[in-house]
Design a protein that fits this description.
Blueprint lengths: L1 H25 L3 E6 L7 H16 L4 E5 L10 H7 L4 E5 L11 H4 L5 H6 L2 H13 L1 E6 L6 E5 L4 E2 L5 E2 L4 E4 L4 H6 L3 E4 L5 H7 L4 E5 L3 H4 L7 E7 L4 E6 H6 L2 H35 L3 E4 L3 H22 L5 H10 L2
Parallel strand pairs: 1-2, 1-3, 8-9, 8-10, 11-13
Antiparallel strand pairs: 3-12, 4-12, 5-10, 5-11, 6-7
């Protein structure tokens, strides 16, 4: 009897151990791959990697982010890679895939903050559109608040309407502001950020827009010594994830990821605002010449209307309703 009882206990102990082992396996740490679009020295990449570090700290034992090297996937191919599940996450400007999701223009043209559009429901609409149309989860909007300037090699010329005359300007294009440049009859050339320095050096382009931070890091200020004011648009970097990956996460992992992204929205915005002031001062001290657009209000209106015009054209061309675009304009622009 005693031997039989011991055998039963041993068998029960083995079953418990196996069961515990299965539980550990079932709750194993989930690894998420992450890519990013810009070179490692730029602040937007540093911020993305900082977010990954925060996720790894908060998610220890539950969820882990594996950051892939720069150019593992090209900047303009990353959205498709996320959509198809080739990689799990990216910190990517919304304009880079606005052809597939035209309503993304609402983010770059916004003068609101992430906190404001979370509160008024605008970000919920953006997230819903990502899930329905491009198989992505839109987790948040980081590094916001940084606006754009046009930087030129030569002093700008203005037409009789008080707007820039770009007839002799060869402008580096980008999905964010291409429609705006073309509305001002600029000759545009689209290229990755890594090609721009050489293109300026060789005279392929003699002007480019960029944010209020980063021009010094890119060394474009060696050639582009004139800046147009006022600034326009806003950085539109979103944290996006493949929807199937998101749906496969545990509730605990989802909460960790969502909460960490929201916290980084706030901290990254505050950090970027400090850097904006610092870089503007440094550029002007180094000789950057600032030129104000005489018809500043018309200039800013044209920036917004050209973007929404492109959005409308893409949506109607695809036979998609304008309902969400109209709502988003009221929620993202104060």
């Amino acid at each position: 009897m005693r031997k039989g009882f011991k055998s039963i206990l041993a068998a029960a102990g083995l079953a418990t151990a196996l069961s515990a082992g299965a539980g550990v396996s079932a709750q194993a740490e989930t690894t998420l791959s992450l890519v990013y679009p810009f070179p490692d020295f730029l602040v937007y990449t540093k911020s993305c990697k900082e977010l990954a570090d925060k996720l790894n700290a908060a998610g220890a034992g539950v969820v882990k982010v594996d950051v892939k090297p720069f150019n593992s996937i090209g900047m303009f191919e990353q959205a498709t890679a996320i959509q198809k599940g080739v990689v799990d996450m990216s910190c990517l400007p919304a304009a880079f895939y606005a052809r597939s999701l035209p309503e993304n223009e609402a983010i770059s043209t916004s003068n609101s903050s992430p906190a404001e559009v979370r509160a008024n429901g605008g970000m919920d609409i953006i997230d819903m559109l990502h899930q329905e149309r491009v198989n992505m989860k839109y987790l948040g909007w980081v590094d916001s608040g940084v606006r754009f300037h046009i930087y030129l090699k030569d002093a700008p010329v203005f037409n009789d309407k008080g707007l820039p005359d770009f007839s002799d300007v060869k402008m580096r294009d980008n999905p964010i502001y291409g429609a705006f440049f073309r509305a001002m009859d600029a000759e545009t050339h689209q290229m990755p950020v890594t090609d721009v320095y050489g293109a300026i050096q060789k005279g392929v382009v003699n002007a480019s827009a960029w944010t209020s931070i980063g021009v010094k890091g890119l060394k474009w200020d060696e050639f582009l010594t004139h800046r147009l004011d006022p600034e326009f648009y806003q950085t539109d970097i979103g944290v996006i994830m493949n929807l199937d990956t998101w749906n496969g996460l545990s509730d605990e992992a989802k909460k960790i990821v969502a909460d960490t992204v929201i916290a980084h929205e706030e901290s990254s915005r505050a950090a970027r605002m400090v850097e904006v002031d610092q870089e503007k001062s440094e550029l002007e001290a180094a000789g950057m010449q600032v030129h104000s657009v005489p018809a500043a209000e018309d200039y800013l209106n044209l920036a917004i209307e050209s973007a929404y015009g492109r959005m409308t054209e893409r949506l109607t061309g695809d036979g998609t309703t304008l309902e969400h675009a109209e709502k988003l304009r009221g929620l993202y622009i104060k």
